[in-house]
Amino acid sequence: MPRYDPDISFVQNLGVSGFAILCATVCTHPIDFVKVRLQNEHKNQTVKKGFSLKHFVRKFQSVYHTEGPRAFYGGLTPAMLRACVYGSARVSFFEPIVSCFPEYNECTILLSAFLSGVVAVILGNPLELLKVQAQSANKVSLQDSIRTVYQNHGVAGFWRGFFPASMRAGLLTATQIGPYKSTKGFLKERFDLKPWQNHLSSSLIAGLVSTTFCAPVDLIKTRVMTEPSLRPLQCLKQTLRREGFFALFRGWVAAYARLGPQTTIFFVVYDHVRQSIGFRGI
Questions:
Q1: Structurally, how many domains does the chain consist of?
Q2: CATH code of 27's domain
Q3: Half-sphere exposure (CA, 13 Å, Cβ side) for 41?
Q4: What does the alpha-carbon distance between residue 136 and residue 39 come to, in Å, rounded to a whole number?
Q5: Which strand (E) or helix (H) includes residue 29?
Q6: By C-alpha distance, which of 161, 157, 141 is closest to 220?
Q7: Residue 155 DSSP label
């Protein structure tokens, strides 16, 4: 299996991936907003609605009627900053990490992708925290969120929820890059698809895998970041005891509705920009 293009520098890759994830973030932010709201629901009657498209649509309607259309872009500023820092690092660190391994195979690809996601969270967790808090509360400014976190928890408070966030980022990166590369290669060998069809199909499948694997950790991360007194393991136990197993997949439809298009937009833009400036695609 060939390695990635060795000629593209880390800074160049950081810029390309940052641009791609920024495009994807702006396009899918309203869906991410609804996903966070669904994950913070604790009502028993919605426990098994994580896979419900109807419940997802109703939540959209509820936000629109009670808060207005501008509410869907709550937390957009920290989300864009997060995309530039966390999103670009999550992809850009992959190649330096995978180059440290003597062999380049499926195992080292998944492990390198997981580690790059964890490294990215170290840099981007404060922005993730501010994004989630802005999406969970109405009309909270970025400055107010920063002030509240610092006054109540100090500098360390910006890394609250680091463990579930790092697990989610590691799983997300591994289950995006791994399935995307494998599916893309499989479709290229077995079917006569146009490049954009291959990109689209591979991205949607990678998004499906990522959403399912990351849903439980993503829910715990969201709740820990919005409830300061909650710890990851405590959150997991409470959720299972009070709401049942399916509660871990609350907001799954919203998560895939966001992650599917986001993965597609990211990989299509990322591949296209890399190739257009003379480097090998992913």
A1: 1
A2: 1.50.40.10
A3: 23
A4: 10
A5: helix 10-39
A6: 161
A7: G
Q: In tens digits, what is the pLDDT along the chain, a chain of 282 residues?
A: 344 555 677 888 888 888 998 888 888 888 888 887 887 765 444 455 556 677 778 888 888 888 888 888 877 888 888 888 888 888 888 888 888 888 888 788 888 888 888 888 888 888 888 877 777 665 567 777 788 888 888 888 888 888 888 888 888 888 887 788 888 889 988 888 887 788 788 888 888 888 888 888 888 888 888 777 788 889 899 888 888 888 888 878 878 888 778 877 887 888 888 878 777 666
H-only helix segments in 40-161: 53-67, 76-82, 88-92, 94-98, 106-136, 142-153
Cα–Cα distance measured from residue 20 to residue 25, given in angstroms and rounded to the nearest whole number: 9
- 44 belongs to a structural domain: yes
In a domain, 1, yes or no: no
**Rounded Cα–Cα distance for residues 275 and 4 (Å):** 12
Query: How many other C-beta atoms can be found within 10 angstroms of the C-beta atom of residue 11?
Result: 9
The answer to whether residue 2 is domain-embedded is no
**What pTM did the predictor assign?**
0.67
Is 5 a domain residue?
no
Structural domain of 106:
10-276
